[in-house]
Amino acid sequence: MKKRSKIAGTIIIILLIAAAGAAFLFGYYQFQLPADTYAVIYTKLNGWNPDVVKPGEFRIEWEGLIPANLSMQKIVILPHQLSIKRSGELPSSDVYSRMIDGDADFSYEAELRISYTLSPETLPALVEDRFLREDNIAGFYNDYDADITAAATSFLTDAVASNPESFSADPSKLSDLLYDSLKQDFSALSITMISIYKLVYPDLALYNRVRELYLSSLEVKRELEKSAAEKTATKLSEETAKIELLRKYGELFTSYPALLDYFALDNKSAGMLPGLELPDFNLEN
Q: Are 202 and 109 in contact (CB under 8 A)?
């Protein structure tokens, strides 16, 4: 009996070890991810795990041994390519063109290709805060495409307009600056390639000269309008003073009518009354 008890105990121990080994292997093998696939772990006990599970990584999560406690979001990260084509005119081109008889063409055209991927390190934040999931990653790329297109178009327009000569000889410099700008604005992405294969822009030196001329003409116009307004105000002030003086003369003559005869007889006193330019009232209307 004792021998049988020892054998039974040994069998139980072996079964327990086998069960533990099977559980261990299950916990290990569930994190064997294929190439380009990353995972963010969620457990009911602790929520989202900030450490990303990477392809081929040895990873054991003991919480996975608790039934129905652990789940994962597997995100396939592959290079995504975005093509951007933009054309248009520089701001106020129609106004500036009319200043030089409408012969100037201030239109531009740009075509470029950008390759990028989601950065694996940012996946936990994207999954938790922006609800990135296995089945909606295409929507994320669509949103990023729109944002990157807007940022790249704005950057290219501003950069080329501010210093066109430096980019016309070596467009790769513009690609490098665009890379730095996008990298700063889109920290969740890994920009892998930027290729500007077409960049046509107008005579920006002429554009800037005409723009300065136009702004100068506006400034001159404002100064002339200001001067005219000041002269009008001064004249109105003078006329108001004359009206006030005549009003006082009227009160004086009303109180002392005899003064009217005095002024009528004394030619030297005629210049004492101020002249007054009355506005031209159209009584017919």
A: no
**pLDDT averaged over every residue in the chain:** 75
- Tens of pLDDT, residue by residue over 167-178, are 555 667 788 888
Checking if the pLDDT of 278 tops 80, the result is no
Report yes or no: 100 and 210 within 8 Å, Cβ to Cβ: yes
Burial 195-209 (b: 16+ CB within 10 A, else e): ebeebebbebeebee
Q: Is residue 159 within 8 Å of 167, Cβ to Cβ?
A: yes
Are the beta carbons of 41 and 53 closer than 8 angstroms? yes
Predicted confidence at residue 285, as pLDDT, reads 45
Pull the structure tokens for residue 204: 């920006």
The predicted-structure confidence for 80-103, as pLDDT tens digits, reads as follows 999 998 887 777 777 777 777 667
Q: Which of helix, strand or coil describes residue 111? A: strand
Identify the pLDDT of residue 99: 75
Q: Which two tokens stand for residue 78?
A: 């592959």
From the number of C-beta atoms within 10 Å of its C-beta (0-12, 13-18, 19+), residue 229 rates as exposed
CA-wise closest residue to 179 among 148, 138, 150: 148
- Using alpha carbons, list the distances in angstroms from residue 93 to 22, 31, 79, 98, 157: 73, 59, 39, 9, 14
Return phi, psi of residue 104, to 5°: -80, 140
- Tallying the residues shown for the chain, one arrives at 285
Helices (H), the chain: 2-29, 93-98, 123-129, 137-162, 164-168, 171-185, 204-255, 258-265
Query: Does residue 106 contact residue 207 with C-beta atoms inside 8 Å?
Result: yes
Helix, coil or strand: residue 77: coil
With 70 as the cut, is the pLDDT of residue 131 above it? yes
Half-sphere exposure of 157 (CA within 13 A, CB side): 17
